[in-house]
Design goal:
The protein has 31 residues and is mainly alpha-helical. It has one domain. Helix content is 35%, strand content 0%. The radius of gyration is 8 Å and the shape is flat.
């Protein structure tokens, strides 16, 4: 899976999207 750059500018929704797309639980998952 392609891992997009996850930085401080990424919103919580964006982080959740990254987590779900890559199926990596706990990957920069918001609180």
């Amino acid at each position: 899976a392609i891992l997009p750059l996850v930085g401080p500018d990424v919103t919580e929704t964006g982080k959740l999207f990254v987590v779900r797309e890559n199926k990596l639980v706990g990957y920069r998952m918001p609180e």
